[in-house]
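Dear colleague,

Following up on yesterday's call, I've attached the two folding results inline so they're easy to grep. Please treat them as preliminary; we haven't cross-checked anything against experimental data yet. The first protein's sequence and C-alpha cells come first.
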Amino acid sequence: MLRFTRTWQRASTEQELKWPLDERVRDELATREAIALAGMVSAIFVLVAIAAAFVVSLRPARARIAVRVTDSQVAAIDLLMPGPGIRGN
C-alpha cells in the first residue's frame, strides 16, 4: 500500500486493493479448467487409441474402414467441442 501511495501520489481505493486478489483467483480458476480439459482430452485420446487397436484386429477391410471413419469423426468432434466451453457459451 505504501508503494502504491508513493507511485501514484494518492491513497488507493478499495477496488484497487482488491484487484490483485481478483486477478489471482481468475488465474487459479483458468489453470484448474485447463488441467481438467487436458485430462478429458487425454482420456479421449486413450479411448480412441484403444478403438484403433481394436480396428487392427478386424479382418474384413470394409469393417476396418467403417470403424476408422467413425473414429476420425469422433476425434474431430472432440477437438471442436471444447471451443464453446472455453468461450463460455
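Below is the second protein, in the same order (sequence, then structure):
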Amino acid sequence: MCADPKTRGISGTRQREHASTTPCEPATSPSHTSGPYRVVVPAVAREIEEIRKLLDAIPDVRSDKVRAIRKSLDADRYGLRPDEVADRMIRGAILRRSE
C-alpha cells in the first residue's frame, strides 16, 4: 500500500482502495514528482497514448473521396442505381434484425 499524504484522515478500507487504484513508489528524481511519491505508468499505457495520438491525427472524413463523389454527382456521372440502394438498405436492416 502506498502511504500517500492525500489519504490522511481516510479510513483504512478507503486507503487500501486508493492504493490499489493509484500505484506509486518512493520518488528517486525530484523533477518527476509532485510530493514524496510518483505515479508509475506502465509501458503499455504509454504505447496506447502514442497510438491514440496517431489515430487522432487521421481525419474523420476522407475529403479527397468526398470531393471526387461531389464532382461526379455534379456532372451526373455518379452511377447510383436507386433499386440497388434500396436492396442494400433492406438487406442491411434484415441482417441487423437477425443479430
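For the second protein, one point worth flagging: The chain has four helices and two strands.

Best wishes,
A.L.
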